[in-house]
Each structure stands twice: as structure tokens, then as C-alpha cells.
Design brief:
Blueprint lengths: L13 E4 L9 E4 L2 H13 L8 H20 L3 H4 L4 H24 L6
Antiparallel strand pairs: 1-2
Helix pairs in contact: 2-4
The structure holds zinc ion.
């Protein structure tokens, strides 16, 4: 069962894709017109993303370790001392989002050799 992205009830075929570009943005399902409008407003504010899925959140958390390893290797650990996990996650997310967006853009322009 697909659940409404806003309230978690069963989704009923109300969909939203930012700018109607499923090639660029995820498509979300909602239970009602009301939730669809709320979801659309959130997505517009957040450039098409409503929130991270649980798997994405978990993957970001698991990326903290290789991130810590590389900053340690580069001698950057002191710069990150006292920073919260949320701040570290923001850095990881920025890299992941930037990478994904670039991949989508490059794929659309057929710049990736198949
Ligand atoms: Zn709903």
C-alpha cells in the first residue's frame, strides 16, 4: 500500500511531481486534495523534495564513517570538532544532492557514455 506522503494514511491517486518533471523530481502520492496541496507547497519550498526517506536517512548516517575517515586522513578533524551529527549530515547531504543533480543533468544531456 502506498501511503500519503503528508499524513501517512492510504494514498488515493493524488499525485504531485515538482514542475511536472518526473525525470528531475520524485513523484509523491497523497490521500486527498488537501494533503496534495500541502505536499505541493512543501515540495515547492524544498525544490521538489518533501523529505528524505528512511532509507536515505539511514544511508546518510552510515556515510558519516567514511566521511570521518577522509577528513581525518586529510588532517581536517580539528575543524570538525564540536560539530553536531546534524551539521555533518548537512555536508554529506549537500554532496549527495549535488552529485545526484549533476548525474541527472548529465544523463539528460546524454553526456554519459552508455
Ligand atoms: Zn494525507
Amino acid at each position: 500500500m502506498r501511503v500519503c506522503r503528508v499524513c501517512g494514511r492510504e494514498a488515493r491517486g493524488f499525485l504531485y511531481t515538482h514542475l511536472l518533471r518526473p525525470d528531475l523530481h520524485p513523484t509523491y502520492a497523497f490521500c486527498s486534495r488537501r494533503c496534495q496541496e500541502a505536499g505541493a507547497a512543501i515540495a515547492k519550498r524544498l525544490k521538489g523534495m518533501i523529505d528524505k526517506t528512511d532509507t536515505e536517512k539511514k544511508a546518510i548516517k552510515e556515510t558519516r564513517r567514511p566521511f570521518a575517515e577522509i577528513i581525518d586522513e586529510l588532517g581536517l578533524m580539528p575543524a570538525f570538532e564540536g560539530r553536531s551529527a546534524a551539521e555533518i549530515d548537512r555536508i554529506i547531504e549537500a554532496c549527495v544532492d549535488g552529485f545526484r543533480e549533476a548525474m541527472r543533468r548529465l544523463a539528460l544531456n546524454d553526456e554519459i557514455p552508455w
